[in-house]
Specification:
four-stranded mixed beta sheet; Aspartate Aminotransferase, domain 1; 431 residues; single chain; Aspartate Aminotransferase, domain 2; 2 domains; alpha/beta
Length: 431
């Protein structure tokens, strides 16, 4: 029997939260504005499920928006955090564990020759942009419509994800003078990039993008797109920056850059690097990182950078991934979810386009997979909202936005995938 959502305790929790927080939440997409209705409030997570305060269980394909590659509350990660917490929550001083985590990252992502830990992906992107500008002594940054790199002012220009949910191409409160130093082009449009470089190549400090776009749903890079950007940056003396906050260690052990064979100058990491705890990192070529304070003139600092609890969770996660090498199994599970969605939509006569990279999956109510943000916005978001609620009523939790990805963890077993297939088939027929 379909659930009746949200339950009474979630309704009361939301009422109280509205009095304290804008929209009743501490990050916009959680408010369900993109799909309608009110959010449920989570009490706990276990494996591939979350449980709300009313006792309802949901198969979770949000996974805290990507970091939980091992699922919720993995015992090995929890024990590592508990052990670290007993030694102290924060020191504001270096620890050996930070070095161990850095070495683990560099082993599988060799482009990260040196790095700096920060507290979030937003902070990492902001610092990487500053470093690129300091290294090149140029100001212009090229980003792509629908790629989200955090909420720093200069990057909130036609960003995706939550901004797309609210139909806003940028944010109020961002000075126009900041935005004018950010050029924005359609994702996958190499010809437009070539034209910009032909006219302003010597002004461009860096090109920043998600190598597999995952903040406007999932949009795969067109053949030759990343290679073309690498070539343009080399010719103009600009830096290529990959935002792998979502794809890092999910697309494969070396991130999307390892999978796709394109080496950036700088990379931005987060999510899985902290195993579910707040963390970010930026890094790349050793000569560039030597420009970061205290070695060089590019200033960046943070009291909680390299926080011991986040480092412990991240190190435990990466050590588990190194030991178990789950990517082939995650690929199989991703293919299983893709097939369930495709089969359910086909049987119900519903047009559906799916884009997937391993355990990262996006689906759109459109005839073909979008290649850029404009095509993403042309998909049927209203139908997605109906599908979202039909699935949620059946205990399957996809992202509360048509412009987000689905995430699979090692905890999603065959029985769970079968239950998901049954639920999505019923949901397609309902809508």
């Amino acid at each position: 029997m379909p659930l009746s959502l949200p339950g009474p305790r979630s309704k009361e929790a939301y009422r109280k939260a509205l009095a304290l927080f804008p929209g009743g939440v501490n990050s916009p997409v959680r408010a369900f504005k993109g799909v309608g209705g009110e959010p449920f409030f989570v009490a706990r997570g276990e494996g591939c499920r979350v449980f709300d305060v009313d006792g309802n269980a949901f198969i979770d394909y949000v996974g805290s928006w990507g970091p939980l590659l091992l699922g919720h509350a993995d015992g090995r990660v929890v024990r590592a955090v508990e052990a670290a917490a007993r030694k102290g929550l924060t020191f504001g001083a270096p620890t050996e564990a930070e070095t161990a985590l850095g070495e683990a990252i560099r082993r599988v992502m060799p482009s990260m020759e040196r790095m700096r830990f920060v507290s979030s992906g937003t902070e990492a992107a902001m610092a990487a942009i500053r470093l690129a500008r300091g290294a090149t002594k140029r100001d212009l940054v090229l980003k792509f419509e629908g790629c989200y790199h955090g909420h720093s002012d200069a990057l909130l220009v036609k960003a995706g994800s939550g901004l797309a949910t609210f139909g806003a191409p940028s944010s109020a409160g961002v000075p126009a003078d900041f935005a004018r130093w950010t050029a924005v082009l359609p994702y996958n449009d190499l010809a437009a990039c070539e034209a910009l470089f032909a006219g302003r190549g010597r002004e461009i400090a860096c090109v920043i993008l998600e190598p597999v776009a995952a903040n406007m749903g999932v949009v795969l890079p067109a053949e030759g797109f990343l290679q073309g950007l690498r070539r343009l940056c080399n010719a103009a003396g600009a830096l290529l920056v990959f935002d792998e906050v979502i794809t890092g260690f999910r697309a494969g052990p070396g991130g999307a850059q390892g999978l796709l064979g394109v080496r950036p100058d700088l990379s931005i990491l987060g999510k899985i690097v902290g195993g579910g705890m707040p963390i970010g990192a930026y890094g790349g070529r050793a000569d560039l990182m030597a420009l970061v304070s205290p070695e060089g003139p590019v200033y960046q600092a943070g009291t909680l950078s390299g926080n011991p609890l986040s480092v412990a969770a991240g190190l435990a996660t990466l050590e588990i991934l190194e030991a178990t090498k789950p990517w082939d199994d995650l690929e199989r599970k991703g293919a299983r979810l893709e097939a369930a969605l495709a089969d359910g939509a086909r049987a119900a006569g519903v047009p559906l386009a799916i884009a997937r990279s391993g355990s990262l999956l996006g689906f759109f109510f459109s005839a073909k997979p979008p290649r850029n943000f404009t095509e993403v916005l042309a998909s049927d978001a209203a139908r997605y909202s109906k599908f979202f609620h039909a699935c949620l009523d059946r205990g399957v939790y996809f992202a509360p936005s048509a412009f987000e990805a689905a995430f699979i963890s090692t905890a999603h077993g065959e029985v769970v995938l079968e239950r998901t297939a049954k639920a999505v088939g019923e949901a397609f027929r309902e809508i």
